[in-house]
Amino acid sequence: METAEIKQKIKFDPYVDLGVFEPKSNGSIQFDHIRSQKPLPALIEANRKADANGINVSVVVFIVEGCENPEIVVTQSYSVSSLGVNQLQFFISYDFNEVKSSNFKTYELSFDAKEEKLPKGVKLKDIDTVEIFLRDTDPITSRGTETTVQPTS
Known about the structure:
Elements: E1 16-21, E2 25-35, E3 43-48, E4 55-64, E5 72-80, E6 86-94, E7 101-112, E8 129-136, E9 145-148
Parallel strand pairs: 6-8
Antiparallel strand pairs: 1-5, 2-7, 3-4, 4-7, 5-6, 8-9
């Protein structure tokens, strides 16, 4: 029996680039004790758009003071949660020196999910949760923060 040799490689990139953001700080937070070098988890809110076919995501990230004018890259990926629910994951990436600190600036980002690279038959209206990962690109990563997509009010 002969076997066929496959010479073509299939490359699949599951990530959708949502762009580069240069947010301005809208406040700060100070802890009583020095925090570790690991990024603080983000605060997130996800809402369906009025037509119910889109999702807007608002995120507050905490970046150590002294990191002025951060450049933040946001990417999106589809996944299925451990409960079998359609989910979008967003990776908020930046590159700063990891330092222990008790002082952080807050930055708010707002962006719309894209329907690109979703599995066949899945639309944004089928997404029930979103999860955010704050990721320092050299490469300490926070745990994910998950929220339910809220219906149109």
